[in-house]
Specification:
The complex is a heterodimer.
Chain A lengths: L1 E12 L2 E11 L3 E5 L6 H8 L7 E6 L2 E2 L4 H7 E4 L11 H9 L7 H10 L13 H13 L5 E5 L7 H16 L3 E5 L3 H7 L2 E6 L2 E7 H10 L6 H13 L1
Parallel strand pairs in A: 3-8, 3-9, 6-7, 7-8
Antiparallel strand pairs in A: 1-2, 1-4, 4-5, 9-10
Helix pairs in contact in A: 4-5
Chain B lengths: L1 H11 L2 H5 L16 H19 L2 H7 L6 H29 L6 H4 L8 H22 L7 H21 L16 H31 L4
Helix pairs in contact in B: 1-5, 3-5, 3-7, 5-7, 5-9, 7-8, 7-9
C-alpha cells in the first residue's frame, strides 16, 4: 500500500525549476531523499506539505488528495523541517500545551517517552537548546501524535554521531511499527544504514527513484561506485565537466 | 478554529496588545482628539503581528493539522476580538461621559470631538481601515508589515482629521451633539459604520485567504 504518491510536481522560480517530480512511498518503508544543496529537496518536501504552492502536479497521502484533505492528512503526517525554530522564548511546556490540543491521536505517554529518550527538559525554551536538541524536540512533536508518515528535512544534520545513531534506531523502530519515513539528507551513510528506497534529485529533476539496494547494485555493476557518496560524486562531477 | 484562536492568545499575541487597550480611556479626555485611542489599540495589534513574525508563528501554525488558510482566519478572529473589547470599552466610557460626567465644565467647553455614537462609528471605521490596509496588506507577503502599517497610519490620521473637522461645518453640528433629538440620527450612523466594518473585514479576510494560499513559505 502506498502512503505517499507524488505525481508530476512542478514549481517554477525565476532561477530554478522543480521539473515534474514523481515518486511514491510504501507503507512501512524508509525513503532517503538525496541531492546536492539547491537540488530541490526542500522545495519538494515543502510542496508535499502544502507550504509551497506548486504550479502543477498532485500529492496524495493515504489515497487522499493533500490539498483537498489538508486537515485530515496532517493529523496522520508529521513534518519536521529540521530544528524547532519557533517561539524560541516560550517554554517547551507551553508550546506543547497548545500543540497537543490539535491532535486527535496525541499520546501523552509516547510524548513523555521521547522527552526522556532525548533528555529534553520541558521547562526550557527552544532558545536554551542546542541545534541538535531542537531537532530532537521537532521529532518528539511529530512522533507524539502517532504519525503514520514522517516527512523530515535534514533531520540528522545538526546531530552528533551518537544522537544520529540513536535517531536511526528510532527510524528502524518506527518502521517496524508500520510508520513510513521520507527524509532528506546529505549524510549518505545514514541512508545506507536504514533506508529501503531512495529518491535522487539533481537540478530539480528526479534522476532515480526505487529500491536503494537495487540502485547500489546497478551502480556497482556499471562501475559508477559502491556507495551512495561515490555515486553522487560521479553523477554531479559529470555534470560539472 | 477555536483552538487556533486560543493559540493566538497563548503563543502569538504580544502583551502590548492587551496593554494598549487602556488607550480606550482616552474617551474620557477633554480637549484631546479622542479617536487617537482607536489608533493606539491598532498599534497594540501591530505589536502582536511583529511578535508573531519574529517567533515564526506562521510556520508553526501551518504545520498543525489545519488548512493553510485557517491561519488567516485565526489572525482576523484575534484582531476582531481585541477590537471588539476595545470598542466595548470605548462604548462604556462614552456612556459614562454622556450621562454621569456630562455636566463637567471641561466636557461642556470641549472644542474637539465629544464621545457619542458618531465617535463610536469613527472608531469602527478606523478599525476597518486597519483590517483592510494593515492586515490585508500583511497577507500579501505574510512577513512585510512596514508599508501596510504606514498606509494604515496615513488613513487613520485622515479619518481622525475628517471626524474632528466635520462637525465644524455648517449644518453638521449634530455630529458632535451628546443630547437632544438628533442623537437618534447618530445611532443610524453607528449602525451604518458597524455594517461597513463587518463587510470590509469579511472582504479583507476573504482576499487575504486567497493570497496566503499562493504564498510560498
Amino acid at each position: 500500500m502506498q502512503v505517499l504518491e507524488v505525481s508530476n510536481l512542478t514549481k517554477r522560480y525565476p532561477a530554478f525549476l522543480l521539473d515534474s517530480v514523481s515518486f511514491s512511498l510504501e507503507k512501512g518503508h524508509i525513503m532517503g531523499f538525496i541531492g546536492r544543496n539547491g537540488a530541490g529537496k526542500t522545495t519538494t518536501l515543502k510542496s508535499i506539505f502544502n507550504l509551497v504552492h506548486p504550479d502543477s502536479g498532485e500529492v496524495r497521502c493515504f489515497g487522499l488528495e493533500m490539498r483537498e484533505n489538508e486537515r485530515e492528512v496532517k493529523q496522520r503526517v508529521g513534518f519536521a523541517g529540521g530544528a524547532v525554530d519557533y517561539y524560541k522564548h516560550k517554554k517547551i511546556r507551553d508550546i506543547i500545551d497548545v500543540t497537543r490540543s490539535f491532535y486527535a491521536n496525541w499520546d501523552e505517554s509516547e510524548y513523555r517517552h521521547y522527552l526522556s529518550l532525548f533528555s529534553l527538559d520541558e521547562s526550557k525554551t527552544p532558545l536554551q537548546l542546542s541545534e541538535g536538541m531542537r531537532v530532537k524536540l521537532s521529532l518528539t512533536l511529530s512522533l507524539s501524535h502517532h504519525a503514520e508518515l514522517l516527512i523530515l528535512d535534514e533531520p540528522t544534520s545538526g546531530l552528533d554521531p551518537v544522537s544520529r545513531a540513536e535517531l536511526l534506531d528510532v527510524f528502524l523502530y518506527l518502521k517496524n511499527r508500520g510508520v513510513s519515513i521520507l527524509f532528506s539528507t546529505h549524510i549518505t551513510t545514514d541512508l545506507e544504514k536504514c533506508a529501503d528506497d531512495i529518491a535522487y534529485i539533481a537540478k530539480g529533476r528526479l534522476i532515480h527513484t526505487g529500491s536503494l539496494r537495487a540502485f547500489l547494485e546497478e551502480s556497482a555493476a556499471n562501475g559508477i561506485g559502491a556507495s551512495l557518496e561515490d555515486i553522487m560524486v560521479y553523477h554531479e562531477k559529470e555534470r560539472l565537466l | 478554529m477555536r483552538r487556533l484562536w486560543i493559540k493566538e492568545f497563548r503563543l502569538a499575541a504580544s502583551p502590548l496588545s492587551y496593554l494598549f487597550l487602556i488607550a480606550a480611556c482616552m474617551t474620557l479626555l477633554p480637549g484631546y482628539p479622542i479617536l487617537m485611542g482607536a489608533f493606539f489599540i491598532c498599534l497594540g495589534l501591530f505589536q502582536s503581528f511583529q511578535n508573531a513574525r519574529e517567533a515564526n508563528d506562521t510556520l508553526y501554525t501551518v504545520l498543525l493539522p489545519v488548512r493553510k488558510t485557517d491561519f488567516v482566519r485565526a489572525k482576523y478572529a484575534f484582531v476582531c476580538t481585541i477590537q471588539g473589547i476595545g470598542f466595548l470599552l470605548c462604548a462604556a466610557l462614552t456612556a459614562v461621559r454622556m450621562t454621569v460626567l456630562s455636566g463637567g465644565t471641561a466636557y461642556v467647553e470641549n472644542a474637539l470631538m465629544n464621545p457619542s455614537p458618531v465617535y463610536l462609528a469613527a472608531v469602527l471605521l478606523i478599525f476597518a481601515a486597519f483590517n483592510v490596509l494593515f492586515v490585508g496588506g500583511f497577507f500579501r507577503t505574510a512577513y512585510k508589515m512596514g508599508a501596510p502599517f504606514l498606509m494604515f497610519g496615513i488613513a487613520a490620521l485622515l479619518l481622525i482629521t475628517i471626524a474632528e473637522a466635520l462637525h465644524h461645518f455648517p449644518g453638521l453640528g449634530f455630529l458632535n451633539t451628546t443630547q437632544g433629538e438628533r442623537l437618534g440620527l447618530q445611532f443610524y450612523i453607528l449602525l451604518a459604520a458597524a455594517a461597513v466594518y463587518g463587510i470590509l473585514t469579511l472582504l479583507s479576510c476573504h482576499s487575504s485567504r486567497k493570497r496566503f494560499e499562493r504564498i510560498d513559505l
